[in-house]
Amino acid sequence: MKKAVILFLLVLATKGHSQFAKNMFSKDPIINLENFQKQRVYFGYYLGFNSFDFKFDYKTPVPNDIQVKKTTGFNVGVVADLRLQEYISLRFEPGLYYTKRDLYFSGVGDLESEYLREVNSTYIHFPLLLKFSALRTGNIRPYLVGGMSTTLNLSSNSKSKDDNYQQKFRVKQWTAAYEVGLGIDIFTEYFIFSPSVRGMFGITDELIRDNTSPSGYTDNIDSMKSRAILINFTFH
């Protein structure tokens, strides 16, 4: 994830060749795509990275939390933007997200098959967001974005009758979250490039409890919710 953040900052900071810099950042730049965002509806696509985590809440305090090892996943999707007024638009950004998390449970066994659970997730993500754009300065326009999302987990094993005692860590198929973030529209001669960073915070419990009782894996978990950092590079 650190590499993805560094890449994001480098994209924003890279100067490019002199003509590009003149057009984008000079006192009197050549205005690119001046009327593009005045369209009622326009479309695009995005590529990006993600880092998903789980937030655990417990019924009673525990000496050792469940440890989550995160990895960097990837995102790909499309964008539909509906202009509501000059500075506000409604965005729908369905996409495919892939991520992996390793969970380490303490006190449930000594073998890796007992204390380690790999959670591979392939999500179809449906965020509906409001985009609040600032006044355009030359070929730069920063913005804030926020809204709600729902997610279908294609890797969900919610219908499985096995549980952790058969090495099955089960999660629900549908979840919901809210999202907030910021980005910047960079108007080039031929397209708009929009790097952005966004936080996603789950609001629904994803965990399916074990059938076995008592369970050292799930009995003390009050809720388990996804949260993530999403870095997208959008092209219009």
TrEMBL record:
> Domain of life here?
Bacteria
Annotated signal sequence is 1-21
Task: Report domain Outer membrane protein beta-barrel positions.
Answer: 39-206
The entry's keywords? Signal
Which Pfam families does the entry mention?
Answer: OMP_b-brl_2
Please report the name of this protein according to its UniProt entry.
PorT family protein
The species is Flavobacterium fluviale
**Lineage, top ranks:** Bacteria, Pseudomonadati, Bacteroidota, Flavobacteriia, Flavobacteriales
